[in-house]
Amino acid sequence: MNKALSEQQFVQYYRQILLPEVGEQGQQTLMSQHIMIVGIGGLGTHVAQQLAAAGIGHLHLVDDDKVDMSNLPRQILFNASSVGREKVECAAKEISKLNPDVTVRTYSEKFSEQFAQSLISRHSDVKQACQHNKLMVLDCSDNMPTRQLINAWCARQLIPLVSASVTAFSGQLMVVDAQRMSEAGCYHCVFSAKETLQTCSDMGVLGPMVSVIASMQALTAIRHVLTIGEKDNTLHIFDGLRLIWQSIVRHRDPQCTVCQHWQISPQEPLLSETNSFAQEAYS
């Protein structure tokens, strides 16, 4: 049972509570939610700030990197005094200033196979959140091996995943959820492990591009937590030069080695023809 809002919390989140899709019960749901953000860079810092401001009660920040001067134009939780310090610690400090009610757990580690395998057994709060369907993962990482590893772990644990990435003037976003949208498949159904997406360090990126995709990622996460809006079984692609969004319906690949154990009802299509189209559209 969700804890009742205090008077201060009711005032703080009043504009959100006014929304019929949120209300007081929805705000309580947000405050009981755990969200793990993997990658505290351009996307991760924006997402963490917005989720903390919205009242997500528990944030888990995962990143083994330290702040570099080149991070400052787009990684908004850092400043010149942050350079050389661990990203997760700097981000946690700023989040606590923004909203002291948010519980922040930091993991100054790389999201490796070993880290993923021991995550639930090592941390009781993560285990409990999983057991009560209160954990979501946001992939804000910047390389394909990590993306595939995050996707595989979430697929195995049946944890909802919102994956996003930005390169130059292109961005992409998708939701993976075995329990609500098994017919849409997983990240591996769209992007194979052999693919390599170019990164910001390769192509460069503007800060506002990161902000746009991060805002969409945060909004998508909140929509999913509150179960509002239409089911999102698409790959969203944003062209920042033309200011155009393209959405491509995703279908599970029945040959996918990552999500083949998911239970698919007979009414759900098992089509994979659009997957190659999705890859071509974003490449």
Automatic annotation (TrEMBL):
Instruction: Give every THIF-type NAD/FAD binding fold domain span.
Output: 13-258
Cellular-component GO terms for this entry:
cytosol
Query: What Pfam families does the database record attribute to this sequence?
Result: ThiF
UniProt cross-references to InterPro entries, sorted A to Z: ThiF/MoeB/HesA, ThiF_NAD_FAD-bd, Ubiquitin-activating_enz
Q: Which GO molecular function entries does the Swiss-Prot or TrEMBL record give?
A: nucleotidyltransferase activity; sulfotransferase activity; thiosulfate-cyanide sulfurtransferase activity; ubiquitin-like modifier activating enzyme activity
Q: Which domain of life is it from?
A: Bacteria
Family, according to the entry, reads as follows: Belongs to the HesA/MoeB/ThiF family.
What PANTHER family does this protein map onto?
A: SULFUR CARRIER PROTEIN THIS ADENYLYLTRANSFERASE, UBIQUITIN-ACTIVATING ENZYME E1
Q: What is this protein called?
A: THIF-type NAD/FAD binding fold domain-containing protein
Q: What lineage is on file?
A: Bacteria, Pseudomonadati, Pseudomonadota, Gammaproteobacteria, Alteromonadales
